[in-house]
Amino acid sequence: RMEGWGSYTLPTGTEYRGELRDGMFHGPGALLFPGGGRFVAVWHRGVPTEGKFIFADGLEYSAERWQYCDGYDRRFLTEIRGGLKPAGISQLTNLDPPRKIPQGCYDCGDGFYNPETRVIIDYNLRFLRNADDEEHEWIVRTCRKAEDEHKPSP
């Protein structure tokens, strides 16, 4: 069984780095997610006893007093840290400038979604998954779509 400090990569691409005891996460360690987020925790026999999630952009999740992008404050973390843009210039995502979305596709948070093929590819253009009906409807309803190059200018 695994003992001591080490790393273990799960089939999903998530990696654990930290202390191991009798084949389980035990002691300080972190789960590093493929999208860049991480869960840093103290583990006891495979169960986190205390920990925090840190998003890829450095924002730490807090269950209490969570005010990031809620109904009262819709700013992105980059706007909170760097200030708002001048009037008339919108920031559409936390990335500034935002990713260029392939024509006809949506940015669904972990990659681009093509509604015609129902395929989601990551930002490096590698296959991630096929979207089921529920995910397709959610993406089309809520996610940012590529600008239509043939839209008339106002």
TrEMBL record:
Q: Which GO terms describe its cellular component?
A: motile cilium
Q: Which UniProt keywords apply?
A: Cell projection, Cilium, Flagellum
Look up keyword Cytoplasm and say if it applies: no
Q: What is its main location?
A: other
List, alphabetically, the InterPro entries matched: Morn5
Top-level taxon in the UniProt lineage: Eukaryota
Question: Which compartments is it annotated to reside in?
Answer: Cell projection, Cilium, Flagellum
PANTHER family, per database record: MORN REPEAT-CONTAINING PROTEIN 5
Q: What is this protein called?
A: MORN5 protein
Which species?
A: Penelope pileata
